[in-house]
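Teaching soon. Got one?

===
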Amino acid sequence: MEEPSNTPHVLKSQANWDALYFYQKSDVIYQLAFAFCDRFIHLYKDRTRDQVIQAARSCKQNIVEGLADGVASTEMQLKLLNVARASLKELREDFEDYIKSRHLQFFISGEPRYADMLNYCRYHNRLSDYEPFFAQWTDEQMCNYAITLCHFIDRMMMSFLKKLEQEFITEGGIKERMHRARTGYRQQQDERLKQLEAELPRLKQSLAEAQAEAAKWKAAFENLKQRALKMYYGKEEEIKRLKEQLGEEKL
């Protein structure tokens, strides 16, 4: 049976995370972190390698899991996206520590390279925009670009979380949506029942009128039928009698 268009829904629409800029940038930051560790952090001598890669992966994966869980639970979605933000902050801290411990430089406002980096990170979201540079940038450049991407992702996610927060305030969680959906369904059924009960007397009256009219037509039909039969048998008798008379005259 087709569901009425005004029936409340329990499940929310699945978000297409690949179309979200903060997810696209989180994919970039994961691949950048992996390439950075592969080039500049020793595979066995520095535990930072695993921490950087896992923090970047946790950010991206928790975004995906959070958006998927959002179909049923806004609360779980909020929690997982905030876990993603926490991993992102940990990753940013690792890149900042790398710059400090190696006595490298942070790109700062007012420098041409800072403006170029900021504009590039603001308007480029896909991995294909960054991947060609992973083998060319110095460790200083990779750290600064990674830190800038972390800032952009965090700001975008905060905007998204505020939107989810407002939806949660106005629409509630899954239990409230389930209650509204069930209550709305019952109300629709009650309204339909009242409508049918209100229509029933009128339908009964229409049926009685139709039956009375049918009885009248049936009586008229029987009357017409009997008259036609009477005329038919009368004519038949007359024909028989005339044939008999004509036969006697010939004799």
In short: Helices lie at 21-40, 48-69, 74-101, 112-123, 127-130, 139-171, 174-250. The CA atoms of residues 177 and 199 lie 33 Å apart.
